[in-house]
Amino acid sequence: MPSSFVLCAHIITLQGSPTVAAADRALREFPDGAIVVDGRGRILDVGSRDQVRIPDGALIEDYRGLFLVPGFVDTHIHFPQVYLRDCYGGGSLLHWLEQWVFPGEAALADRRIAKAAAQDFVHALARAGTTTALIFGSQFTVAQEALYEELRRHGLRAVVGRTLMTHGPKAAAPLLTTLDEGLALCREEIAAIHPNSEAERDSLLRAAIIPRFALSLDARGFAKLGEFYAEQHERGVHFTTHLSENAEGPTGEVATVKKRFRVANYLDVYDGRIGTGRGRPSLLGERSTFAHAVHTTTQERKRLAKAGCSVAHCPSSQLFLGSGTMPWRKISEAGITIGAGSDVGAGDSFSIPTVLNAAWKVHMSAADRVTLSPASLLHLGTLGGAQALRLSDRIGTLEAGKDADFVLLDPRSDELLAKRLEATAGLPAAQARNQRLFALLMGGPRVHSTWVQGRRVPVTIP
User: Fold this and answer.
1) 252-301 tens-digit pLDDT
2) Which of 12, 143, 166 is nearest to 79 (CA)?
3) Residue 232 contacts residue 209 (beta carbons within 8 Å)
4) pLDDT tens digit sequence for 18-74
C-alpha cells in the first residue's frame, strides 16, 4: 500500500468547530475536489483538485461523479435490537419494551445468535455510511465479545458498553444482574477495551457506562453508579442513557420515574439528587450523552448545558413511539450540543440521512417551528455527533490533521436524484450548494463506500 493516496470527488464538508447555529458559515464545497490521505489514515490536504498538495508517488483514485462527505456519527443505537425494528407495540414505550425488546435482547445469550447479530449490526452500520457510533451493548459477555470482534475486524469507530439493568419487569428477568455483578462486568469491559493515554489518539474503541434508563436501577444503584463513574471519569470513559423520552400520562415513563424516585425532575435521578442522597456523585459531565430529552424542563436544560452534556436527537424513533418532538430551539439555545441518533430498534433505519430527513420534517411541523438549513442537518449528522463524543479534534469534518473518516455517496443510483442534482448547475452558487447538500441528505443516495482512518471498510454494499 502506498504511503499516501488521493481520492477525487465532489467534496462537501464543514470546517472548523462551529455550533449548529453557525454551521452555514462553515460550509465548504469543492465540486472538482480531492482529499489527500497519508499512510496513517490522516488527512494531509483537502480542497480543489488543482490546488491540493499531492505527494510524489501517491496513488490517485478517481471518484468524480460521486460525493464525498464526512462519515456519519450515530449518537444513539442499540446493538441487541438489530432484529427488533418495526415491532408493533401499540404506541407505548413501556409496553413495547416488555412485549418485544426485553425478550428480543435476551436471545443474545445464545452464542450463535449473538455472533450473527454482531455481524449483521456492524454490516448495517457500514452500509449506512456510519463511521462512528455510540452503542448500547448487550447484557451478555458472549454478545459483547462478538460485537467487539466485528467492530475491530471491520475497523469502525465506536463508543460502547454493556447495558446495565438491576431492576425491571418479569419480561426483563434474563437481562438483570445484581448491582455488584453488573459493576464488576462493566469494570472488566472498560479494562479490556478502553485505551490508555498512550494509545488514545489512534484507538477506534472507547468504553461507556450505560444504565438503560432511570427505571433500570434503584436509588442505591444510582448512588453506587455515580461513585463508579467518578472513578472512571479521569480515564475518559463516557456515560450515556435515556432521558425524558416518553410522557404517556400518569403511567408513562416520565411520570413513573418521578413517582418512583420522588424527584421533581427526571434528570435528578442521574444528577445525584435522589431523596436523602442529594449531593452524591453526578453522572452529568462533558462526556455524558442523553438520548431524546423530549420532555425536559428549563431547569433540566440549564443543568445539562452547565455540565457540558450532549443530547442524542432521535426523531425517527420519537415518531415511531409517539414520544413527541424534541424542543430543538430550547435545546440548542441552551447551549447543549446535539447529535443525531438512529435509535434502532425503535428507529426503523440505520441511515443517519434518514434520521436527518425526519428531523427536517418534525421541526418544520412542530408548534415551535424551526427550519433547519442544509448545513445544520450536515452538522447534526456529522460534526455535532463528533462534538458530543468529544472526538471533534479528529473526526466530524474533512480537514488537514484529522482522521480520514468519510463516506462516498453515489447519486447515480437514483436517476431522478442525479438529474435533480444536475439541474442545480444553473442556480446561483450559494443556492446551488445548499440545494445539492439538501437533496443528498434528504434523498438518501446509495452509499458507495465507507472509510475509517483512510481504510475502506470491508463490507459489500449492494
Assistant:
1) 899 999 999 999 999 999 999 987 656 678 999 999 999 999 999 999 99
2) 143
3) yes
4) 999 999 999 999 999 999 999 999 999 999 999 999 999 999 999 999 999 999 999
Number of C-beta neighbours around residue 186 at 10 A? 24
| C-alpha span between 32 and 11 (Å, rounded) | 8
* 113: amino acid identity, one letter: I
The domain limits of the chain are 4-70+397-456, 72-350
Q: Which CATH superfamily is domain 4-70+397-456 in?
A: Urease, subunit C, domain 1 (2.30.40.10)
Which of 462, 432, 390 is CA-nearest to residue 124?
Answer: 462
Tens of pLDDT, residue by residue over 387-428, are 999 999 999 999 999 999 999 999 988 889 899 999 998 899
String of DSSP letters for 228-288? HHHHHHTTT-EEEEEES----GGGSHHHHHHHHHT-SSGGGGTTT-SGGGTTSPPS-STTE
Return the H-helix or E-strand segment holding 291: strand 288-292
- Distance (Å, whole) CA 392 – CA 401: 11
SS3 81: helix
The CATH classification number of 72-350 equals 3.20.20.140
Adjacent-strand bridge partners of 27: 14
